[in-house]
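We keep the chain:
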Amino acid sequence: MSDEAPPERRRMVRPPSGGTAAGRGLGQKLKTADKRSLSSQQWIKRQLADPYSERARAEGWRSRAAFKLSEIDDRLGLIRKGSRVIDLGAAPGGWTEVALKRGAAAVAGVDLLPIVPIPGAVLIEADFTAPGVDQQLIDALGGPPDLVLSDMAHNTIGHRKTDHMKIIALIEIA
């Protein structure tokens, strides 16, 4: 045996950062993964790792879609102060929040899904194609809308042509 001391181990100057959930490396583990389908698990993991979803959570928006409408409005100036706005397919309410924040005087939203109330907006849980819902929206605004927003999508079936036709049909009805 040698009397020499073992060479000193090199230490890292700084520990690895690993990034954030939106960056590389970390991600988040699903606590209820065993109760969900594989496709549902993958969707949730993408949402947790998405930088826009993370930013929306940090800034208090209901969804990442708020950034989509904000970008559109920055370019086109659609939402005018004092305007009346209808939001078709409003759940979870991100576009409704943006419209109110940007100065819309009245916002009425409709969706098949329930929407947590938003101060300053009238939210209706209904199919927008059902008889009378159009008049309910106009009445909630106090007159005809100045702008109709829609971020609707039907439940896809996986057949591209059929899904495309259903999306086009929703656009035409809107």
Notes: Confidence is low (pLDDT under 50) at residues 12-26. Residues 139 and 156 are 32 Å apart (CA to CA). Helices lie at 38-49, 51-59, 65-76, 94-101, 133-141, 160-173. DSSP finds six helices and four strands in the chain.
